[in-house]
Amino acid sequence: MEFAFSDEELMIQNAAEKIAADRLMPLADRLDRGEGRDDFLANLKLLAENGFMSLNVRPEFGGTGAGTVAFALAIEALAKGCASTAVTTSVTNMVGEVIQAVGSEQQRQAYLPRIADGNYPAGAFCLTESSAGSDPAGMRTRARKDGDHYILDGEKIYITSAEYAGIFVVWAVTDPEKPKGKGISCFLIEAGTPGLIIGKAEEKMGQHGSATNIVHFENCRVPATALMGRENDGFRVAVGELAGGRIGVAALSLGIARAALDTAKSYIAERRQFGQRIADFQGIQWMIADRETELEASRLLILSAAAKKDRGEPFGKEASMAKLFASESAHRATDTAIQLHGGAGYCRDYPVERLARDARITRIYEGTSEIQRMIIARDVLGNR
């Protein structure tokens, strides 16, 4: 098996690491305190200008066209600097990919360049509802045909980047008479469209720099050309894009975990107790060894899923495995990092406290760990 990265992939990884170190990491604590929004948006623009908002979009639409492996490497590097910026980048890439995959030529030409060049600060993925989280087929938002328009009514929750997104990919029920999941369609709606209303921002445990909002649709009238793909075929699209998004969350989890573990290793190399460095105690060394092994396994699972996607092979199971293992490993890594800091790890003076809060959501969004286990089990037991 070939594990070497291409020159382009290494260039993208190096560029992401530099931006993360120079621009993202210095801002992360301010974002966590609810400050620095203008600088955050400036960093999103910088990332777009350097090709990071459209890594898997073809150059003909303004994208980088670098592929999923490059995307995974970039998200990991960005998350090491700032999880809030990394999740915004990951979701925006998802939006670009779904437009490229199922959008019309007119939609691709109209919207993908605006994502790629940062004209849209971000893209938003409107799927989750209060009654349709792990079971998105149970959504209630309606899109009613009215001549050459659709009228949307309903509410989406936990929408990443809603406050500053320029374009929204929205799922709604277009035929309530069809079996569950069969009458759902997908729409592209620009920010500022009358009837698309951004609601309150959630007060979250972590990733404070990334806005998460309720989005209301109240008599939101859009032209029929806003429909993406075929009518009533939207749920299949959503399921496919969620699989790709799980690679992004897995890579983000790994980046957070790597930041926490690197911080902890530096701390125990300097901190002394009982006349020696903490790093010299065997029990501490074993903790580090276990976490490092898990992070390396996470990386290999992520790259395996990403490579399968790039080759056009089925990758849903592998994406779920990567997301499950990397997010659970990030939880253990950040918890270990706090433990190795002792009382200092519980204080905001050290970044591991923030990293632990940032990591917690990775076991929930893009499908909980429990949902990932269901997907994996159904795949491996499907033929039995």
Gyration radius (Cα, Å) is: 21 Å
CATH-derived architecture of the largest domain: Up-down Bundle
Supply the number of helical segments. Answer: 10
Summarize the amount of helix as a percent range: 40-55%
The CA-CA distance between the termini, in Å, is 29 Å
Report the principal-axis shape: globular
Mean pLDDT across every amino acid position: 96
Number of strands: 10
CATH class type of the largest domain: Mainly Alpha
Coarse structural class? alpha+beta
Stretches where pLDDT falls below 50 for ≥5 residues? none
SSE pattern, N- to C-terminal:
HHHHHEEEEEEEEHEEHHHH
Q: According to CATH, what is the topology of the largest domain?
A: Butyryl-CoA Dehydrogenase, subunit A, domain 3
For this structure, what is the CATH homologous superfamily of the largest domain?
A: Butyryl-CoA Dehydrogenase, subunit A, domain 3
Number of domains: 3
Explain this structure.
There is one protein chain. By secondary structure, this protein is of the alpha+beta class. It has three domains: 7-122, Butyryl-Coa Dehydrogenase, subunit A, domain 1 (Orthogonal Bundle), CATH 1.10.540; 124-232, Butyryl-CoA Dehydrogenase, subunit A, domain 2, CATH 2.40.110.10; 236-381, Butyryl-CoA Dehydrogenase, subunit A, domain 3, CATH 1.20.140. The chain is 52% helix and 15% strand. The strands form three sheets. Strands 1-4-5-8 form a four-stranded mixed β-sheet. It has a four-stranded antiparallel β-sheet with strand order 2-3-7-6, covered by helices on one side. A hairpin with a 2-residue loop joins strand 2 and strand 3 (149-160). Helix 6 (234-270) packs antiparallel against helix 7 (282-310).
